[in-house]
Amino acid sequence: MTRPGWDEYFMEITHLVAKRSTCLRRQVGAVLVKDKNILATGYNGAPSGVAHCLDVGCLREKMRIPSGERHELCRGLHAEQNAIIQAAKHGTNIDGSTLYCTTMPCVICAKMIINAGISRIVYEEGYADQLAAEMVQESGVRVEKFTGTTQVGESP
Q: What is the per-residue pLDDT across 86-100, written as a single tens digit (0 to 9) for each?
């Protein structure tokens, strides 16, 4: 039996978290981790108590808004936002944590990640948002693309 490395372990959990998504376009999961402990999780979907896109349809599809544009025209929050909000709601310090996410964060999430003190992002799929990549790089947050069981820069 081969045990998964830490990055593989936490990335697998992001896929489980993403299954809770109520977005009709893309299911995204996020997990905040510090010292090999899960601090918070998030998936993309409407705020608590608000109808989900699964139930009322996708506003962005109706308006034909391309992916990566006009984030404000959506009923849902991104997985990264929900993970950060969950940590704040429960008083969990995420400064210095790692964000594992199925998709590279957008610019709105990138700004939140930077100001929340998250020090590392590990993601699988890219996202068409050059400004997000530039801002994260400028801030000093480490960004690593997860490529499977072996990942460049994996922390012990």
A: 999 999 999 999 999
Using a cut of 0.70, tell me whether the model's pTM lies above it. Answer: yes
Q: Which amino acid is at 62?
A: K
Distance CA 156, CA 145 (A): 16
Q: How crowded is residue 29: how many other Cβ atoms within 10 Å of its Cβ?
A: 27
Q: Is the dihedral of CA 105, 110, 114, 115 positive or negative?
A: negative
The helix/strand/coil state of 102 is: strand
Token couple for 24: 């009709």
Q: How far apart are CA 31 and CA 25, in angstroms?
A: 20
Q: What is d(CA 35, CA 135) in angstroms, rounded to the nearest whole number? A: 25
Out of 8, 80, 125, 154, the active site residue is 80
Torsional class of 123: left (φ above 0), alpha (ψ -120 to 50), beta (otherwise): beta
Q: Is 80 a catalytic residue?
A: yes
Task: Tell the burial category of 142 from Cβ atoms under 10 Å away from its Cβ (0-12, 13-18, 19+).
Answer: middle
User: What would the two tokens of residue 68 be?
Assistant: 């990566």
| pLDDT tens-digit map of 40-60 | 999 999 999 998 888 898 888
**d(C-alpha 42, C-alpha 21), whole Å:** 9
